[in-house]
Specification:
mainly alpha; 3 domains
Amino acid sequence: MDGVEIDDLYGLGLDRFIPERASLVRELRSRGDREQAAKVAGLRKPSVAAWAVNQLVRTQRREVDELFAAGDALRDVHAGVLAKRAAPRDLRAAAEREREAVDALVVTARGLLSSGGHELSPATIERVSETLHAAALDDEARGEVSEGRLVRELRHAGLGGGLGGAVPAPAAARSPSKPARKGTPTPAEDRQPAKQRQAAEAAHRREREEARKRARALERDAAREVDRAQRALRTAQERQDRAAEALRQAEVAVQEAEAGVEAAVAAHRQAEQQRDAL
C-alpha cells in the first residue's frame, strides 16, 4: 500500500469520497492490513471549497505555479517597500498580479459542479478565493494546498491580506517639482523674515510628529484587530475540528456496523448451506 490509492480519493467527485473510502477500507481489511484500513477510515471528507481547490491543484498546474510565483513576488516587494528598497507602485503592480492569478483560478472553479450537480455557490467560491490567496502568501498554507488533499478551506489572517490597498507615496514622490539645492534659498525664502521661516518649520515638524503618532496608533489598532480575528478564527477552527472528529467517529461506527451486518449475513448463508446439506 504506497498511498497512491489514498491520493486518488481526493481527486474523485465529492459524492464518491465516502463510498470509495469505505470500499478501500474493506479491501484493506480483506488483505489483513487493519492498520492501514484504520488510517483510511480516519480520512476526512473535504469541504466543498477544499474539494474545489484540490481539483484546481490537480488539473491547473501551470495556473497554480503562477499563483505561487505571484505570491512570492508580492511578499518580496512588500518587504522591499518596508525596507525602502522598492516603490509603492511596484507593490501595487505585484498585488494586481497576485489578484489576477487568484481570479484566473476562481474562473475555473466556477465551472466545477458540486456533488449534487449544481454550480458552486457564491459563498463557496469566496472561500476558494480566500484559500488560494492564503496559499499565495503563506508557506504553511501553500504546503497544505500543494498536496491536493485539503480537507477544509484556509484564510490568510496576516497583514499580507491588505497588501493590495493604497500605499502612501513618499514625500519626494508626491511633488513633481525639483527640491532646491541645499544652502540655496528660493525667492520666497528671500522675502520671508527669519522668524516666520522658523515658525513655519516648527509647525511643519509638529505636523509630521502628529502624523507619525496617528500612524503608530493606527498600526496598534490594526494589530489588535488582527489578533482578535486570529483568535476568533482559531476558536472556529477548533470547533470545526471537534465536529469533524465526531463525524469521523460516526462514519467509522457506520462502517463497522456495515461490516458486522455483512459478517452476520455471511454466517446466516453458511448456516443455511449446512442445513440444506443435512
